[in-house]
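Protocol step 4 of 5: obtain the predicted structure for the target chain.
Materials: sequence only (see below). No template structures provided, no constraints applied. The aim of this step is simply to have a reference model before the mutagenesis design in step 5. Sequence pasted as it appears in the construct record:
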Amino acid sequence: MTKLQDMTVKQVKTRKTLYGLGSFGVTIAPVAGVILSRWELYTKDGGGVKLGFGGILLAGLLLLAFLGKVKIPGRVVFLGIVCGLVFLLKAVIVDLPLLSGVAFGSVTADALWTGRMAKKYKKELELREAADRTSRATLEGVKEYLKQNGGIT
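Step 4 output (structure tokens):
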């Protein structure tokens, strides 16, 4: 294995990207695998439409909440939304212990392996970029000094 100091910037960027993608995959793939393996159970008796609509609604609400755009006016509206989501996602809710366990395991694996490596390479890139900026500024300072003082004496 190549030492980090011996890698080129391109190699560090490539590894950072690969570990970032790996981090995403390690986190999402196990949960997606469980959902896909149980898809027939979730979609029997016309549940696919409800599940799809509930998933889209939940994803939209989570995205808006993440962006800080959701202001739920009161308990009645909040409980109405929760009731609707539970109704639409009832088939998946039965598997919440399994899904949450798989999610816990995948997030733990990400924290211990791929996420840590992605952060390592990101930090290395930041250090190299800072060193490049410092080198360029020093070089410009030396050039300016030589220009003002007529060269090396």
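Step 4 remarks: The first helix runs from residue 9 to 37. Residues 9-38+95-143 form one domain.
Proceed to step 5.
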